[in-house]
Write a structure and sequence with these properties.
Layout: E1 25-30, H1 31-43, E2 52-55, E3 60-65, E4 79-81, E5 100-103, H2 114-133
Antiparallel strand pairs: 1-3, 1-4, 2-3, 2-5
């Protein structure tokens, strides 16, 4: 799986161009934080955000990240599900029942870079904390 900008040494190598898409790990966060992070990533340079799932019933967002990310993921308030090649693939249909694509896979089929996602989720959490403290 290719990543969007930065190669994180904690993740497995990217797939060669033209190789079939393999399963992705999924970083799950509360919807509010995830939506803020999506906005932050979309304002950044290039294709910083890959496909994102939205679970209306659970109020969560799931960022598809390269396989192997779960082994080193430790960001409080989020979980990363390791799928060992059995998980979601970048297909037009959402890979998880009851979910839908917030950002569907595009032609490039890039997963979100875990290091970039970690930064965006941290910034989003700080923004939410600041907004909530003003109420």
């Amino acid at each position: 799986m290719e990543t969007s900008r930065i190669n994180d040494p904690r993740t497995q190598p990217s797939r060669p161009p033209g190789a079939p898409a393999v399963g992705c790990d999924v970083v799950t966060v509360p919807a509010r934080q995830g939506l803020e992070a999506v906005d932050i990533l979309r304002r950044g340079p290039g294709d910083a955000v890959g496909p994102v799932l939205h679970d209306d019933g659970g109020g969560t967002l799931g960022f598809l990240v390269p396989p192997g990310t779960a082994a080193a993921w430790d960001l409080p308030g989020s979980t990363c599900t390791q799928v060992d090649g059995r998980g979601p693939t970048l297909a037009p249909e959402p890979p998880v029942e009851g979910s839908d694509w917030l950002l569907p896979p595009g032609e490039a089929d890039l997963a979100t870079d875990p290091a970039v996602l970690r930064q965006a989720l941290g910034e989003a959490a700080r923004m939410i904390k600041a907004a909530d403290s003003r109420r």
